[in-house]
Write a structure and sequence with these properties.
It contains 23 helices and 14 strands. It is an alpha+beta fold. The strands form five sheets. Strands 4-5-3-8 form a four-stranded antiparallel sheet. A four-stranded antiparallel sheet has the order 12-13-9-14. Strand 4 and strand 5 form a beta hairpin. Helix 2 runs parallel beside helix 7 and helix 18 packs across helix 19. The longest helix has about 40 residues. It is globular and about 75 Å long.
Length: about 525
């Protein structure tokens, strides 16, 4: 009989209940042979992620760390490199040995992890109410995929390549000779040897490979004074868009449905956020016109629209919630323009006297503080002196003492216990908090930001679970297709657009009760850029 005839009954029924490792991936494997895997109660990878997000979650590492057992890697069985075999070339006995050893390890790990989670009600809730149900939602989204306009991308490739060529010519002019602009080594030699550019008053040091660093950081610093550095930065941005998206996306379209199926990585980001691979959609730059054009190539299927919803100023709202600062909470409750309200406090003005420049400064302060920005960072960002920046920060803290208190107590808490938590109790470990110097400073900044990023991640995950449940209860044809940062994207048949447009933000706004209202804003369009 076929695989399905032999195993289908066991796999497609809720009983017996099953546990596995990366069960979302297994569901795809089974779906390919027409089997609908059901009854998965535990996933060892997700258990590990909830318990220790900052450590590696490969099955080999888990076996070594928790069971002190050395699990044979795939390479031992299949070889590696050009000689690597596929499983079909391995004898059934050898493959079965390999698999059964892993099954044994998975069941042992599950026993351990279940115990560890049952000792911590908050973590168990994150695992049971967020990560496990989300795994199902993500599986459906990956199966759904998103439609891509490959013709449009091909045109963009041609345009971007032409732009890159122009930049190359400009670079040759600035350098006074032809060289390979895409080579960091040659760029470094021209900038620092030939043109004698100095960084902070000195010739830069060479990296381990014996070349000058032309990292984004270095080039950004030089861009103001040296045209060649600015040209190189633009050139990199454009060529990266071509290689990562406009050229690559058309090659990733699945022949069966003309759609691109990204993989959502559920156990990678330390803060609890999702990331995506093949293609990575989290990295499409939204601040540049070219990046926005790439989003235009993500289109709705015929007879459908794309609907995008994202939380407005989610991290600032969470900051208000976590710090419970009276003034900040009130501003959100009264639905004020938060940057204008902050500016009025910092500059001691009436709200209607706040200038656009005041608001811009307040906005940089608001976002800077969320990331634990120092006076130095703020000064650099605003192009002002360090003393002036310090003065702004002091004024801000004087007007919003709750925020100051939250930051101080969070740093102290991180130092004391080695982790911080989201509103829902997800644990964010900070392994570097007791390190020295810059590493510790970075860990302290992370301690302040992680609860905000992590809580935002929990909220969007709860939203996805709630939206999928609503789709199924109402029997809608609408589908969740993408989740990018704080944004959810659905593909919606035209006759369901009004219903979804009305309900999607409502569902997102009510997944939890914070001290401040949550507001999701929604847009509709024929492509992702138009809907955003």
């Amino acid at each position: 009989g076929t695989f399905k005839e032999i195993f289908g009954k066991v796999l497609e029924h809720k009983k017996p209940i099953k546990c596995g490792y990366d069960t979302k991936y297994m569901k795809h494997v089974f779906a390919n042979v027409g089997i609908n895997l059901a009854g998965v109660s535990d996933d060892v990878m997700l258990e590990s992620y909830v318990l220790e997000a900052h450590r590696p979650h490969t099955i080999e590492k888990l076996a070594a760390n928790w069971l002190k057992y050395e699990l044979r890697g795939e390479e031992d069985l299949l070889g590696k490199g050009a000689k690597k075999l596929s499983f079909s070339k391995i004898s059934v006995e050898n493959a079965a040995d390999f698999a059964s050893e892993r099954v044994f390890i998975v069941s042992r790990l599950n026993r351990l992890f279940k115990k560890a989670l049952s000792d911590d009600a908050k973590l168990e809730k994150i695992y049971r109410d967020i990560e496990m149900p989300l795994s199902d939602v993500l599986f459906k989204m990956e199966q759904n995929g998103v439609l891509i306009d490959t013709k449009l991308l091909d045109q963009q490739t041609v345009q971007l390549n032409a732009q890159a060529q122009k930049l190359e010519e400009k670079a040759f002019e600035a350098a006074g000779e032809k060289f390979k602009l895409s080579s960091p080594k040659q760029l470094g030699e021209i900038l620092f040897d030939k043109m004698g550019v100095v960084l902070d008053g000195a010739k830069p040091k060479k990296t381990v490979s014996g070349n000058y660093s032309t990292s984004e950081e270095v080039l950004s610093e030089l861009a103001e004074n040296y045209p060649l550095a600015k040209i190189a930065l633009e050139y990199r941005t454009i060529t990266k868009l071509v290689t990562t998206y406009t050229e690559k996306l058309p090659k990733m379209v699945a022949p069966k449905d003309g759609r691109v199926h990204t993989t959502f990585e559920q156990a990678v980001a330390v803060t609890g956020r999702l990331s995506s691979t093949n293609p990575n959609l989290q990295n499409i730059p939204i601040r540049t016109e070219e990046g926005r054009k790439v989003r235009e190539a993500f289109i709705a299927a015929p007879g459908c629209k794309l609907i995008s919803a994202d939380y407005s100023q989610i991290e600032l709202r969470i900051m208000a919630h976590l710090s419970a600062d009276k003034r900040l909470v009130e501003a959100f409750k009264n639905n004020e323009d938060i940057h204008r309200a902050t500016a009025a406090e910092v500059f001691g003005k009436e709200k209607d006297k706040v200038t656009p420049n005041d608001r811009r400064i307040a906005k940089v302060i608001n976002f800077g503080l969320m990331y634990g920005m120092s006076p130095f960072g703020l000064a650099k960002n605003l192009g002002i002196g360090r003393d002036e920046a310090k003065n702004y920060i002091n004024k801000f803290f004087a007007r919003f003492p709750g925020v100051h208190e939250y930051m101080d107590s969070t740093r102290a808490l991180a130092d004391r216990q080695g982790y911080v938590e989201t509103t829902f109790g997800r644990r964010l470990w900070l392994p570097e908090i007791h390190a020295g110097g810059a590493r510790r400073a970075a860990a302290e900044r992370a301690a302040i930001n992680a609860p905000m990023q992590g809580t935002a991640a929990d909220l969007i995950k709860l939203s996805m679970i709630a939206v999928q449940k609503w789709i199924e209860e109402k029997g809608l044809k609408s589908k969740l297709i993408l989740q990018i940062h704080d944004e959810l994207i659905m593909e919606v048949p035209e006759d369901e657009v009004d219903l979804v447009k009305e309900n999607l933000p409502k569902i997102m706004d009510s997944v939890t009760e914070l001290h401040v209202p949550l507001i999701a804003e929604v847009g509709v369009g024929d492509n992702w850029e138009a809907a955003h």
